[in-house]
Amino acid sequence: MESASQGLLSDAMTDVPVDSAASARTAAPEGLTLAEEEELRSELAKVEEEIGTLRQVLAAKERHCGELKRKLGLTPLDGLKQNLSKSWHDVQVSNAYVKTSEKLGEWNDKVTQSDLYLSASSTLEDWNEKLTQSEAYKKTQETLSQAGQKTSAALSNVGSVISRKLGDMRNSATFKSFEDRVGTIKSRVVGSRENSTDGLHSPSGAGDNPPQDNAPF
After folding, report:
1. How far is CA 63 from the centre of its chain?
2. Residues 131 and 137: beta-carbon distance below 8 Å
3. What whole-number distance in Å separates Cα of residue 104 and Cα of residue 190?
């Protein structure tokens, strides 16, 4: 059984096509000789080697650029702003942008000089003139002006009334009596502070009272 299965497996494997580098090299593409194929493969290897070298050089240059930016205090945001500014400048000087700007300018001139645009502008100006000269517009403007004047006068009257009320309150007997009481309390507080200060300066009141004679009779 094992020999039979191995024989069937070997027969199946012989039917599978083998794609190896050796077989690919032996079969040259159409229109190329073996010498031309070898020359192209040699040139491809050189180009791939140069690409690898350039990648290494580019990585080293990028590291050096990053170190210089770090020493100069430049952040990635500054680099992004610089790239965006450069990109926008490139867009502005590109042929597509210039042509688009010229086309938009031409369209604007054509629109503003067209009969439809001129007629619409003239119609809007006529409507504006008629509106500003109408009786309803004038009455509305006069009403708003009068309302503003009345509001200003009312505010002025309120300020005058408040000032007069404050003056009357200060001249009233109640307010004066309150001021007198506050002044009396203030004078008492100041006097008590002065007396306490004098008492602290004299030691136990010895300077004020004469010494008593305690000698026996």
Report:
1. 31
2. yes
3. 86
Residues in contact with 28: Cβ distance below 8 Å, sequence separation at least 6, in sequence order: 34, 36, 37
pLDDT digits (tens, 9 = 90+) for 128-170: 888 888 888 888 988 998 888 888 888 888 888 888 888 777 7
* CA of residue 87 relative to chain centroid, distance: 22
Q: Cβ(56)–Cβ(64) under 8 Å?
A: no
Read off the pLDDT of residues 90-143 as tens digits, 9 standing for 90 and up: 998 899 888 898 889 988 988 888 888 888 988 998 888 888 888 888 889 889
Mean pLDDT taken over the chain: 78
| Closest to 33 in 3D by CA, of 41, 43, 44 | 41
> Amino acid letter at 88?
W
CB 186 within 8 A of CB 180: no
Task: Note the helical H segments in 2-134.
Answer: 2-15, 21-26, 34-72, 76-93, 95-112, 115-132
- Geometric angle at alpha carbon 38, from 36 and 42, rounded to 5°: 115
pTM: 0.29
